[in-house]
Amino acid sequence: MKSWWIFLLITLFSCTKEVKIDIPGYQNQLVVDGIIETGGHPIVLLSQSANIYEQSDLATYISRFVYDANLSVIHGNDTFPLTLYTIPELPIDSQKKVAEMLRLDWNEALLLPIKVYSSTVLIAEASQSYTLHISYQGKTYQGTTYLPTPTPLDTIYWKSEPGTNQYGYSWAKLSDPVQQFDAYKWEVKRVNTFNGAPIDDIYKRGFGGFFSDQFFDGQTIEFYYENPLKRKDTTHLKAYKRYYRLGDSVVVKFSKMDQQVYSFYDKKYAQLNSASSPFSTPVNVPTNIPGLLGVWAGFSPCYDTLYCVE
Asked: What is the C-alpha to C-alpha distance for residues 174 and 256, in angstroms, rounded to an integer?
């Protein structure tokens, strides 16, 4: 019996092996968050990436923005230099777009002591390509985005949920073009007023607001979306916080993007949504600007107004 225990211990210790993992050190990278939409001006936030072990607070976040780069947007034979602006110096539509990019309320974004790169001369058009050129610390980077021809929704309507005639989702019907890649973004804002002011200043996107036609190419589909907006109306029942209320007037912004832009957002939000799970598959977020992190994203929207009535 004693010899059996000795044999077991020898076996266990003989199978032990020290494993050394060579974890690469942190390398600082330039990060681009750039957007250009039909009818709008280009907007680019440029910053340095963050070490996961860095202090995380507002002052550290603001200190990472980069203001000494040279940026321009190339469209055909024309080159449009981008200038640094504080957020309040931008046109109002661009101010709101920055707030949407940062996922802040408009009045909160105006208080941020940061600058963005933009051009008030260039106004983007659909079915066109735009190239972002960046020169920084002796290196140049370049990426191109295409603004597809938008596809409007066939219909949009509100339907109350079973058990209530006061709350419901926004429903829509879409006829997807045949035999081509199409990707869409769904954003909303309510334009009815509360206490004399518009309920929402900016567009917001709910969960799953990006999708492609991978499983319905060339088909007509019917789908719904939840209400992603913050509630300022205290009479809105909390049990229905993701629903639109009878009487709401909602502008739906339905945008298209090219495949590279969709791939970035699809992988980005897949990574964010699975990061807390120890069983999730690691996701590498692609970029359309080689050598950098982030994206130069072009969108071509259509607009519809949803009136929440039966």
From this structure: 13
